[in-house]
C-alpha cells in the first residue's frame, strides 16, 4: 500500500535495533541483525515511504561497524521505497562512532513540506535521558518558524511515562521542557523508542508514537517492580496527513522464537540496575 506525499507523510518508524559490530547475540540469545532483516522484509510491501525514522539505540556496543551494518541494511531499503532516513541517538549509542558513520546527531530535513527534526536525549554513560538548555533552545528556534505542513520530532526517550519499573527509572528527566518546546511551535508528532513496546498517546496536545523494539519486546504489564522481556520484533507505520491527526499502525515481524523469555528481573535486580544507570538525584 502506498501513501503519496501530496496526501501527507508516510513514515516507517523503527527503534532499538541494538546491533553489534562483531555479530554478538543480544543477551546471548537474539541475533539483532537477523531481527532487523525480518522487520525490513515484513515492511517491504509498504510501497512508497517518505521517511525511515530510526529512533535510537541503533547500536548495542557503540562500534563503528555496528553503525555500518545498520546503514548497509537501511539505506538500500529506503532507496527502493523512495524514502529519506533520519537516525536519532539512544542511550546505548556512542556519539563519536554514530557521527563518524551516520552523520550529525541532530538534524533538520524537509520532506514534501514537512520538517523532520532529530533531538539527542542521550546522557553519556547513563540509561536515562535528558535534553539540556542549549538543545531546548535549538528546538524552540527551529519550530518557531512554521514549515508548510508542520514538524515531526524524532528522539529516543519518550516524553511520556514508562509502564514498567526499570524503564520508569530510565525515563526522560525533563519531559515537560521538551513538550513545552514542541508546543511552542508547529510540532504535530513526536516519534520515540526506548520502551521496546508499542505506545500511542497524546501529551500537551501533541501525538506521541513509541515504536516496538526491533531487538526484543518489553512486557508493559509485568508484575509491579519487575522488568520482563521476550523475543519479538516490530515496527510502526505512521501516516501524517497534511491536515488532521496522524494514524499509527503497529506491525509484528514474527520469528519462530517469539514469546521466548529473555529475562525476568525481580525488584532487587531492577533497583540495582536503576541505581547504576539511572539519575543520581531524583527529578
Number of strands: 14
User: How many distinct domains?
Assistant: 1
Low-confidence stretches: 1-5
**For the CA atoms, what is the radius of gyration?**
17 Å
Notes on the structure:
By secondary structure, the protein is of the alpha/beta class. It has a single domain, classed as Metallo-dependent phosphatases (Purple Acid Phosphatase, chain A, domain 2, 4-Layer Sandwich), CATH 3.60.21.10. Helix content is 26%, strand content 25%. It has seven helices and 14 strands. It has a six-stranded mixed beta sheet with strand order 4-5-6-7-9-8, covered by helices on one side. The chain is globular and about 50 Å long.
Topology overview:
Layout: E1 8-14, H1 32-42, E2 51-55, H2 64-81, E3 84-88, H3 95-102, E4 108-111, E5 114-118, H4 133-144, E6 151-154, H5 165-169, H6 175-183, E7 187-192, E8 199-203, E9 206-210, E10 217-218, E11 227-230, E12 234-241, E13 247-252, E14 261-265, H7 267-277
Parallel strand pairs: 1-2, 2-3, 5-6, 6-7, 7-9
Antiparallel strand pairs: 1-12, 4-5, 8-9, 10-11, 11-14, 12-13
Helix pairs in contact: 1-2, 2-3, 4-6
Amino acid at each position: 500500500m502506498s501513501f503519496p506525499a501530496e496526501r501527507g507523510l508516510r513514515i516507517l518508524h523503527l527503534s532499538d535495533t541494538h546491533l553489534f559490530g562483531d555479530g554478538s547475540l543480544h543477551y546471548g540469545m537474539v541475533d539483532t541483525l537477523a531481527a532487523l532483516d525480518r522487520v525490513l522484509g515484513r515492511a517491504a510491501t509498504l510501497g512508497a515511504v517518505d521517511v525511515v525514522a530510526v529512533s535510537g539505540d541503533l547500536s548495542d556496543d557503540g562500534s563503528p561497524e555496528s553503525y555500518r551494518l545498520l546503514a548497509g541494511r537501511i539505506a538500500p531499503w529506503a532507496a527502493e521505497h523512495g524514502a529519506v532516513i533520519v537516525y536519532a541517538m539512544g542511550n546505548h549509542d556512542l556519539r563519536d562512532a554514530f557521527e563518524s558513520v551516520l552523520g550529525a546527531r541532530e538534524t533538520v530535513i524537509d520532506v514534501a513540506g514537512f520538517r523532520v527534526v532529530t533531538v539527542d536525549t542521550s546522557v553519556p554513560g547513563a540509561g536515562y535521558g535528558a535534553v539540556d538548555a542549549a538543545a531546548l533552545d535549538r528546538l524552540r528556534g527551529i519550530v518557531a518558524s512554521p514549515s508548510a505542513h508542520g514538524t515531526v520530532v524524532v528522539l529516543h526517550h519518550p516524553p511520556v511515562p514508562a509502564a514498567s519499573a526499570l524503564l520508569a527509572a530510565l525515563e526522560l528527566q525533563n519531559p515537560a521542557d521538551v513538550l513545552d518546546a514542541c508546543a511552542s511551535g508547529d510540532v504535530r508528532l513526536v516519534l520515540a523508542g526506548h520502551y521496546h513496546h508499542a505506545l500511542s498517546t497524546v501529551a500537551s496536545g501533541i501525538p506521541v508514537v513509541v515504536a516496538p523494539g526491533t531487538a526484543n519486546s518489553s512486557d508493559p504489564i509485568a508484575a509491579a517492580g519487575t522488568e520482563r522481556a521476550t523475543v519479538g520484533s516490530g515496527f510502526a507505520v505512521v501516516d501524517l496527513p497534511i491536515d488532521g491527526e496522524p494514524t499509527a499502525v503497529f506491525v509484528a515481524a514474527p520469528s519462530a522464537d517469539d514469546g521466548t523469555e529473555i529475562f525476568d528481573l525481580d525488584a532487587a535486580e531492577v533497583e540495582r540496575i536503576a541505581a547504576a544507570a539511572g539519575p543520581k538525584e531524583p527529578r
